[in-house]
């Protein structure tokens, strides 16, 4: 231990940055030179290497980023930050899975919308003239305005969605063109403007694992 | 004409410089390129998920923080001045989003989940040494102050340099060095050695400051 004290201190300070590979070549050379003659620093270097390895060895918590990304896109689109796109070219190996998911969501949405329209018209054979594709911003006259916007995960089943709507006392009154965003209102029209009812429904919706986004529309859910 | 994302795609695999690729993606994002944004998101998501996942066991909160981060990235992409790596810039945003989210969602109730996660990690590895290392990390990090822990994680988990950590945590390089110094001392004084060996001595004498 006849090392120059300054070199010892400098080495001790540099060790983590040599261990994580961000030290410069000159710094690394200085550290390596000192380590050859200093047992204390060699021990510290070994300890930090073990700690570094241990941190990296912890298994990663992996998750599929696509649902979260879909949620972010929906958020940006709702806020007008990003224009919705009809078709986005994607890498081929992902296309099939997303296409399948989109078909499922579309089928669920169309089924629910069809059921809602039939129920409202009271006559399955005479669909109202205004029935068709609508955006969230164009509410049909006489139809309940949406109080909640809902984005569900592509793999949410129809049974889960129906159960969720049943529990919350909501039904679908609107959907965007690709049925990825639903506008919900209370089955009991008097409750749609009830902030307490809407907030309770939002809490229940957000607690459901397959719900990517549930947010009030306009002033819905805000206490007067 | 090849788009930026197509060009990056052709370089996939032998990518010589991740930061160069990410700078080009970010430039495209600043121009409103949705596909570049998606590409950047998917590149950064695993790293950010691991980093944020060390501070909360709630997967929904991890995704929420990542989305808050990329919401800022989308809006601020044009303001990136290239003073750091793109990844460092994004980690800096994630760091601030995480602090805010954790303030609003204190992790106190999650301690058991964290321990469970560590146990699971050990089971998954199937090796006692691996389990011991994981346990060592978990208990050791719990002993540090939030700033010391964050410094160590940014350095050892994300491989950030001293200067990059200073930029992410918005402090001086000297502060990063001091936090790292004290973190190491605290770990040396408190943690048992590996493999049943005695704990390393406090050994402050080896640090001649």
TrEMBL record, chain A:
InterPro entries: Anti_sigma_zinc_sf, Znf_put. It holds the Pfam family zf-HC2. Keywords: Membrane, Transmembrane, Transmembrane helix. It comes from the Bacteria. The keyword Flavoprotein does not apply. The chain crosses the membrane at residues 97-118. Residues 10-42 form the Putative zinc-finger domain. This is Zf-HC2 domain-containing protein.
TrEMBL record, chain B:
Residues 136-187 form the RNA polymerase sigma factor 70 region 4 type domain. CDD domains: Sigma70_r4 (cd06171). Residues 40-105 form the RNA polymerase sigma-70 region domain. Pfam families: Sigma70_r2, Sigma70_r4_2. Keywords: Sigma factor, Transcription, Transcription regulation. The keyword Metal-binding does not apply. Belongs to the sigma-70 factor family. ECF subfamily. This is Sigma-70 family RNA polymerase sigma factor. The keyword Transcription regulation applies. Residues 1-20 are annotated as: Disordered.
